């Protein structure tokens, strides 16, 4: 439904863009930083995290570009092993100082810092010490890490994201390290429970230490559509939404496990261990908002019990048609959407799906929402006269922003938009081949070149969007 009267973006809307430490900073063992699990496990066919976009050494220049773009907020993540090289214990002064300098430079330029506490980069030392997220020991270590951040940055940072895409860690197991001797599914549900407890502790601490700050999760979500109107497919779509979205959001917002999922976990011997006080902690730590990473919608259909379980295989090469869908017998199986265009990585482009998702979440939770990621990965070409004509990206972002505007008209309390990504950075799956930024970084997977920053056509487009507060899309 379109509205006849123009709906505008709120006056104080956060026009932002996002990055994450391991994909953007580089300097991965510099000034006391140690390796994270993602530094160790990144796709070996592409560039590693050692230099990335070298933001660590270019942050002032990069913030000047943010300012030129007109950004009023910036979502970045903090590297746990840069702040605490052993994951716990002694604080690395140079590490925490880097974030203090970053935040004060942002403030100087009138840009609101939106900080993600955890974006996949668990200190490898904690993985080695006790298996990282598989042990409840991590809850106290995570709380200690949060305490350090709130202590040092709490006067300057008033928006915090606890954990990035807890939901996707289920689909993309390479983001975590698992124990070869325990069934994978059991480990995932156990880790999910432990992570949610860590998230809840972070919220509790934030309330105590920075009462004027706001805090919530950043969740990777896609609405799941039924392949047909066959009731079995409709039920499969409900299942997919429960298992891939509402499992996480109900835990975050209401502190409960949905009964159907709880029964599934119990019957299959994969239920997490719940200790005394766990559910009370979860129920007491309601987030202030939901951060949503949205890239695509998904289609699912009925999966008979007789099928064999299959993990999803993502397309990491950018050659269309390489994705293999997951199958959970009796629950759902993935499929394609014949009505949607796809990126070269098979991600289905669905701006309307974003409006659908925002409305679903608003109906369910009545919380303010910020889009913490949304963007289009592509192979960009630098022309001989040093331009990048990324009209496909402009088209993608424009259509998604148009749906955000409509969702605001529907009543969704949307307060910000952080396209992924501010600048080209290392793609989690596909190195520097797959670019997302408004600013081109002059390097490839094989050749670091001069890492020069070059504004793409989309930079000038987004600049105009911000200048007109979204009137001119
Ligand atoms: C999200 C992550 C980001 C980013 C993005 C794009 O899942 O939070 O870190 O990587 O997806 O994904 P990719 O780099 O695989 O294209």
From TrEMBL:
SUPFAM superfamilies in UniProt: (Trans)glycosidases
Active site, UniProt feature: 373 (nucleophile)
Keywords linked to the UniProt accession: Glycosidase, Hydrolase
InterPro entries: GH, GH_1_N_CS, Glyco_hydro_1, Glyco_hydro_1_AS
PANTHER family: ARYL-PHOSPHO-BETA-D-GLUCOSIDASE BGLC, GLYCOSYL HYDROLASE
Family, per entry: Belongs to the glycosyl hydrolase 1 family.
Stated name of the protein: 6-phospho-beta-glucosidase
Native organism: Bacillus chungangensis
